[in-house]
Design a protein that fits this description.
11 strands
C-alpha cells in the first residue's frame, strides 16, 4: 500500500517521515468526597501532539530542510495532511536537526500541536444551522458552476473529495466555514467545486 505524501500548508514532503507518534490526552478533575470516595469530572480533550522524525538524503538535503524551516517560520496554524492521522488544523511548534552535519544527509524531528479552535461543537452547529442554506444557495447562484454536497452520516471530507475526484486541500479551501476538517455533520452542505 502506497501512502500519500505528508503536507503542511504549502509544503509537501518529498518522502514521508520515517517515524510518527501521536499523543491524545483528556483532562480529568478529581475531587475527594467524604468516606474515602472521590468524584471525577471530565474537563475535556487537550491538544493532540503529533511528532515524528525523518531524513532528507542526497545533494539537496539541506535545501529541503531550508524549505521545511521556511514553513516553520510562517505564523499561525495550517492544514496538516498526514497519510495516517486525520487531517487537522495544527501549529508547527518544533523542528530540530538531530545529527552531526553531513553534506548529503539531514536527520530531523518535528512536532505539531493540533489547534482546537474548531472543536466547539455547539458553536459550529449553530453557525451551520443558521447560515448554511443561505450561504449555499447564494454562492451557487453567484458562481453558477458551484457544486455542493450534503453530508451523509459517516462521511468525511477526505471521502467526499475522493468521490468527486478533487483534492482534499481544494475542498478545505472552498469551505472556510469548516474550522475543523475532521468535524462535519450529517445534513451540512460542503462545496466541492
Amino acid at each position: 500500500m502506497e501512502l500519500a505524501p505528508m503536507q503542511y500548508k504549502n509544503y509537501v514532503w518529498p518522502h514521508n517521515p520515517r517515524v510518527y507518534s501521536i499523543e491524545f490526552q483528556r483532562k480529568v478533575g478529581l475531587q475527594k468526597v467524604p468516606f474515602g470516595r472521590y468524584h471525577m469530572q471530565d474537563l475535556g480533550l487537550t491538544r493532540r501532539v503529533m511528532k515524528g522524525e525523518g531524513e532528507f538524503v542526497g545533494t539537496g538535503a539541506y535545501q529541503e530542510l531550508k524549505k521545511l524551516a521556511t514553513v516553520f517560520y510562517d505564523k499561525g496554524p495550517g492544514t496538516l495532511i498526514h497519510p495516517v492521522w486525520q487531517t487537522s488544523s495544527a501549529y508547527f511548534v518544533e523542528l530540530s536537526l538531530t545529527q552531526e552535519p553531513r553534506p548529503d544527509y539531514v536527520r530531523y524531528t518535528f512536532t505539531f500541536w493540533e489547534d482546537y479552535g474548531g472543536y466547539d461543537a455547539s458553536a459550529r452547529t449553530e453557525q451551520a444551522g443558521s447560515g448554511e442554506s443561505g450561504t449555499a444557495s447564494g454562492s451557487a447562484g453567484e458562481s453558477g458552476g458551484a457544486v455542493w454536497h450534503t453530508v451523509a452520516r459517516g462521511e468525511s471530507l477526505w471521502r467526499i473529495a475522493r468521490n468527486y475526484g478533487v483534492e482534499l486541500n481544494q475542498v478545505i479551501s472552498l469551505n472556510p466555514q469548516i474550522k475543523n476538517p475532521n468535524l462535519i455533520y450529517p445534513g451540512q452542505k460542503v462545496r466541492v467545486r
